Amino acid sequence: MSPILIPPRFGWYLCTFHIGRMYFLCVNILILLVATLYFYLSAGRYTHNVASYPLPDKSLLTEPYPCINMNGDLAICHKGQCNGKWKPPRTKHCSICGLCRLEFDHHCPWVGNCVTLSKLKAFITFLFLVPSTFLVAVLPVAQILVKHIILALHVSKRDPWAAKTWWDWPGSWILCAGPFGRWIVGAILGFRLLSQNREQSQSPQLGYLIEQPHLRVVITAGFALLLSVFAFGLGIVSTRKVFQGVTTLEILRPSRSQSVDRHDLVCIPQTATNEVFVAPLLPKERMYDLGNDCNWKLFQLRPFFLTPSPRSYTWPKLNPIMVQRIREMQNNHRN
Ligand SMILES: [Zn+2]
Ligand SMILES: [Zn+2]
User: Which residues cross the membrane (predicted)?
Assistant: First the structure.
């Protein structure tokens, strides 16, 4: 064997054996991680982060806290099985799960469970892992799939039946999601024409699903692409909310400029006189925003997987700028 032949052979060996195996392993690990996170997010629908702390005596509270009315009262839930249980700050009664959830963010219909701040790290990881897995899985065949779509469009446009039924029909511009849908239906027709020709001339071989134009492969990849784009977008939005120190629920509440929401009142207890001073949030103020850096640091410090709830309730830290503003209001009110 001539030494000059060794590098190409070695290269072939690396590509087809080692890298091929590594790629296969990588894709499978990613799919396994996505599946594990999905099951973790779906688990514990009736057990995780359920609000079950006794109602505190408000006269013993000394630090500023969120309240529901001008008397500084704490929220209580009478819905479902909660039956008068205390509803700590940032808790929401999920009507789908039928219980009060601590640190509620939103109920995710895709995982059939509530997403809470304790599960948010896993949720955001899941949202970014889905498009990453899709990219790694589809990248080696992406070029072939695009070629097949172009070929299908080409065949469809040149076929007299497809041209008469679809391309030349004015309704094709509006029937399926406008001009974009016109191309999708056109490509589907092209794949049908290609499959009719293929069945007459070819027999299935190993890898034929990818090497030959197949509509089901393109539809599967297209569906996975849509899901990945959706997950990626949601991941970006969720990460932004982490930086802002808000939950989805807090963002979706009606604008405070229109009406004062009962969740947006802050009470400052006065231990000496046993009185309370209650003030509403300003329209763009965020109750739990501790500043971008601090919000992100607190998020990072949270464990990835759920840990048992502590026996005693830990009150969430309130926006220090907001507390300062309300204290100044209180001082002005006294004077
Ligand atoms: Zn409840
Ligand atoms: Zn729920």
Answer: 20-41, 126-151, 171-194, 215-237
